[in-house]
TrEMBL record:
Alphabetized UniProt keyword annotations: Cell membrane, Membrane, Transmembrane, Transmembrane helix
GO cellular component: plasma membrane
Lineage summary: Bacteria, Pseudomonadati, Pseudomonadota, Betaproteobacteria, Burkholderiales
Organism the protein comes from: Pandoraea aquatica
Annotated TM spans: 38-64, 71-92, 104-121
One Pfam assignment: DoxX
Keyword Nucleus part of the UniProt annotation: no
Official protein name in the record: Membrane protein
Compartments, record wording: Cell membrane
Family label: Belongs to the DoxX family.
InterPro entries, A to Z: DoxX (IPR032808), DoxX-like_oxidoreductase (IPR051907)
Recorded topology in the membrane: Multi-pass membrane protein
């Protein structure tokens, strides 16, 4: 299999999580706004719209290979930010500690995958 085909398949796999999460937030917009407000994010409606754009739009752009390097960098930063905001294992009660720790480091690992994509993206797969 050619490197491009492997890279495209990897991008599809990486996109699945973000596309599903973004679409779910669209259908549960008010609940997502409420959750974001409850965890202390300011301007929860605006943040929700931006998160949907990053997740769903970013996933589609990633599959298509649109501006791949800057997109992968944005998604890496976003994924680390969501780990820090949404998976605070250091402040979790004992019953939630393991789950939050695992989710935090899954996000960190996903960000690492995005950084690898930044470093090794084929120029032919990156559209200007």
């Amino acid at each position: 299999m050619h490197r491009f085909n492997i890279q495209w398949f990897a991008r599809v796999l990486m996109s699945a999580l973000f596309l599903i999460a973004g679409v779910r937030k669209i259908f549960a917009f008010k609940a997502t706004v409420g959750y974001f407000a409850a965890i202390g994010l300011p301007f929860a409606e605006v943040v929700t719209a931006l998160v949907i754009l990053i997740e769903a739009g970013g996933a589609i752009a990633l599959i298509l290979g649109w501006r791949l390097k800057p997109l992968a960098l944005l998604l890496a930063v976003y994924t680390v930010a969501t780990a820090l905001i949404g998976h605070k294992f250091w402040a979790a009660d004992p019953a939630q500690f393991s789950g939050q720790l695992n989710n935090f480091f899954k996000n960190i690992a996903i960000a690492g995958g995005f950084l690898l994509l930044v470093a090794h993206a084929d120029k032919s797969s990156s559209k200007a």
